[in-house]
Write a structure and sequence with these properties.
Layout: H1 2-21, E1 24-25, H2 40-60, E2 62-68, H3 69-81, E3 89-96, E4 99-108, E5 111-123, E6 129-137, H4 147-167, E7 170-178, E8 181-188
């Protein structure tokens, strides 16, 4: 009988120690059912399309850039993977109904949650794109202090870094987001 208690206590202790070594999933918003593939080829295609749009704009004075979900997801994943401790992992970016919806996974200690950040794209008075967080869901965690500023800055850098060379001398006039595609149009100054 005494041996059974010792074995039971030992098993409980072993299970408790194993749980500390594991990451525990604590919920959060569900990813949409359609998974977006991440590839370096998509980032390369985006770069090529931006260069082609820039070349075409020299003659017409009009620049039109189209970015799809695979390209923007791959671009964000590439930027996140280059950081030592990214704020989210496994990103998925959906371009639907006028919104940029970013899904990912955040880890705090041994807890991991799904994250959803919804952004609106607008245009500032100088004709440059501006991304604003309209909502953020970190599951049971409160949104971290300064989240809006940090995430907006990071995503803005990734976004404007991608279109930066094409945007030189560009004044954005429209941003349309629907059905997995974001289209930016503007005039070359």
């Amino acid at each position: 009988m005494k041996n059974n208690k010792i074995v039971t206590l030992f098993l409980i202790l072993a299970i408790a120690l194993m749980s500390f070594a594991c990451t525990i999933f604590a919920g959060g918003p569900e990813y949409p059912p359609t998974k977006i593939a991440i590839s370096t080829e998509a980032v390369g295609n985006l770069d090529a399309e931006l260069q082609a749009a820039q070349t075409a704009s020299v003659e017409s004075g009009v620049l039109s850039i189209t970015i799809n979900e695979t390209q923007i997801t791959s671009l964000l994943a590439n930027k996140l993977n280059s950081q030592p401790d990214p704020f989210i992992k496994n990103p998925q970016v959906y371009l639907q109904n006028g919104e940029i919806q970013v899904f990912g996974q955040a880890t705090q200690g041994n807890l991991m949650v799904n994250v959803r950040i919804i952004l609106q794209a607008s245009i500032d008075p100088e004709g440059m794109p501006v991304l604003t967080i309209t909502s953020a869901d970190f599951g049971p965690f409160p949104a971290p202090e300064g989240l809006n500023k940090t995430v907006s800055s990071f995503i803005d850098q990734a976004f404007t870094g991608a279109i930066g060379p094409a945007a030189t001398g560009l004044r954005i006039e429209t941003i349309n987001i629907a059905d997995g595609i974001m289209t930016l149009t503007g005039k070359v100054k």
